[in-house]
Design brief:
The chain has about 525 residues and is α/β, with parallel strands linked by helices. The protein folds into 2 domains: about 55-250; about 265-515, Spore Coat Polysaccharide Biosynthesis Protein SpsA, Chain A (Alpha-Beta Complex). It has helices at about 10-15, 20-25, 55-65, 80-95, 110-120, 150-155, 165-170, 185-195, 215-235, 275-285, 305-310, 325-335, 355-365, 410, 430-435, 445-455, 485-495, and strands at about 70-75, 100-105, 130-135, 165, 200-205, 240-245, 250-255, 265-270, 290-300, 315-320, 340-345, 350, 370-375, 385, 390, 395, 415, 425, 460-470, 510, 515. Helix 3 crosses helix 5.
Length: about 525
């Protein structure tokens, strides 16, 4: 049974630069071979592309005996409309169970290996069976989460290739859309997601994925925007879609409901007037949303200047007496609210994005969303929070820190396991329905715990990088970090046992400040 905070596994996860882990992973991967310091030459550490086994002898005979319709085409030499027409003819006439798309430039050995592995793991109830894939740059594989988040899928084609697609499900939708262009696979995945289709992820890095042209901006961007716009229209979501910063990545923003719902921003504090004033000033000066209010949650402030401000301010002040208990303070503040939506805002945050409430309430008002979080950066500009990943321990994802690879995953609006309570938005009545934060988690892990409980109720947690706050973590609560909170949380969710972050690639594990590749076929990695 898990033994709590003092276990060896937790210590390894927490100690930056754990030498034994670095040495072990180095044996299976390459180091930075660039002459330029700081240049990223591989991600993750420990992945060796030469370890792919391309012995296709057994594989060829195995997959040919199964019901797979293999469609080979050259994406660089045919048009999207011609490809879709030929595909739809195959779908109409095929007797097979699965469709497998592969570019003609992929070797027979790579194709055979991939089909063998996908068919070996495919479950009959699945609509799509997909794996991680090799990349154009072999040192940077394209890693994917086990769960295809419906909001992540709007940002980019997280499924990609290689994949097996159910032919019966394709027939149900009349084949691939003739208006989807080269984003026809992405369009199909969006429609499957809308109908709660079953996506099965095979956590193996396999060849026979997308080619260089399939991942290029000129080839993909406009078609991707078009299919995401079509998805928003089908769902009757009013929003805007624009080309993102990487090929195939889009930025999508939803309009807030009309009329504007009321939003209450609750800011807990104990004294620290200088923080409160700069936090509120940024909100008041920059916020473009009209229907909002600010409530200060006073946890036994004693400083005369702070008390004088509370007496004079036009903002509501709610007394939250007693020893510091973040969960209890937030719960008490929300009990005094009648607003449609709540934002929890740390007193040490400074707003940077004027239309933040429009963007966040557009997401939080979706029927399948429970909690929405934002990006936070430190005052020196370094990333502080780009969602919370639990792999194996809950930690902030940071693009200029532990996750140095600028890929679609780090840049997307996406479904995540959790977001920090420093900035969270949710419906007040939903918060009340799940009982708010657990007040036995007094200081830490209460924000992550409530995100996980929201998902048990069928609600997604969504992170958006398009809303930014400055936040120097810990400047408000100082060094308070009780082990009892962490132990309770770890045991409740069996964090070092059965728990797996559904929205983060399972082949990655974060030890200290470094992500390592975990070979699923290497028992020493478990």
């Amino acid at each position: 049974m898990f033994g709590g905070e003092e276990t060896l596994r937790h210590k390894i996860a927490q100690v930056p630069g754990r030498h034994v882990l670095k040495v072990a992973r180095a044996l299976r991967g390459t180091r930075n071979t660039s002459n330029e310091p700081g240049v990223l030459t591989e991600f993750p550490i420990g992945y060796d592309p030469t370890s792919l086994l391309l012995d296709a002898g057994e594989a060829t005979s195995s997959y040919q005996a199964r019901e797979v319709e293999v469609f080979v085409f050259n994406e660089a030499q045919v048009s999207a409309s011609e490809t879709i027409k030929m595909l739809n003819e195959k779908i109409t006439n095929s007797q097979a169970t699965w469709l497998f798309l592969v570019d003609s430039t992929i070797s027979d050995a790579a194709r055979a290996l991939t089909l063998f592995q996908l068919m070996k793991h495919a479950e009959s109830a699945s609509d799509v069976v997909f794996s991680d894939e090799t990349n154009v740059n072999p040192r940077f594989p394209i890693l994917k989460p086990n769960t295809v988040g419906p909001h992540t899928l709007l940002s980019y084609n997280v499924v990609g290739r290689p994949a097996l697609l159910s032919i019966s499900k394709l027939r149900m939708y009349g084949g691939f859309s003739t208006s989807a262009g080269w984003a026809f696979e992405h369009d199909f995945y969006l429609r499957i997601s809308e109908q709660r289709g079953i996506f099965q992820h095979v956590p193996l890095i396999l060849p026979a994925g997308r080619t260089q042209i399939a991942l290029s901006a000129d080839h993909l961007n406009n078609d991707t925007c078009a299919v995401v716009n079509a998805a928003l229209a089908r769902r009757k979501w009013n929003g805007d879609v624009s080309i993102g910063t990487l090929p195939g990545l889009v930025q999508w923003k939803l309009s807030p409901p009309s009329p504007q719902p009321s939003i209450e921003i609750v800011i807990p504090t104990r004294d620290r007037l200088e923080l409160v004033l700069q936090c509120i000033a940024a909100v008041e000066e920059k916020t473009t949303y009209n229907n909002y209010s600010i409530t200060i949650l006073d946890n036994d402030s004693k400083d005369p200047d702070t008390l004088a401000y509370f007496e004079s301010t036009t903002h509501k002040v709610v007394a939250c007496p007693g020893p510091f208990n973040y969960a209890k303070i937030i719960n008490r503040g929300i009990k005094h609210s009648t607003a449609d939506f709540i934002v929890t805002l740390n007193n040490d945050t400074i707003l940077q994005t004027p239309d933040w409430l429009e963007r966040m309430v557009g997401l939080a008002s979706l029927p399948d969303v429970g909690i929405v979080g934002s990006k936070q950066v430190e005052s020196n500009g370094h990333s502080e929070h780009e969602s919370v990943v639990i792999t194996p321990y809950p930690q902030h994802l940071r693009s200029d820190g532990n996750y140095p690879y600028r890929d679609h995953f780090i840049l997307a609006t996406k479904d995540v396991a959790a977001v920090t309570g420093a900035v969270q938005m949710f419906r007040r009545n939903f918060w009340e329905s799940i009982g708010g934060m657990d007040e036995e988690l007094t200081v830490v892990m209460n924000d992550i715990d409530v995100c996980l409980r929201a998902q048990l109720e069928g609600r997604n947690v969504v992170y958006t990088p398009d809303v930014i706050h400055t936040h120097d973590a810990g400047s408000s609560r100082g060094k308070l970090d009780p082990k009892t909170d962490r132990n309770r949380f770890l045991r409740r969710w069996d964090i070092f046992g059965s728990f797996q972050d559904p929205y983060f690639p399972p082949l990655l594990k974060l030890f200290g400040e470094t992500f390592y590749y975990i070979d699923p076929q290497d028992s020493s990695s478990n």
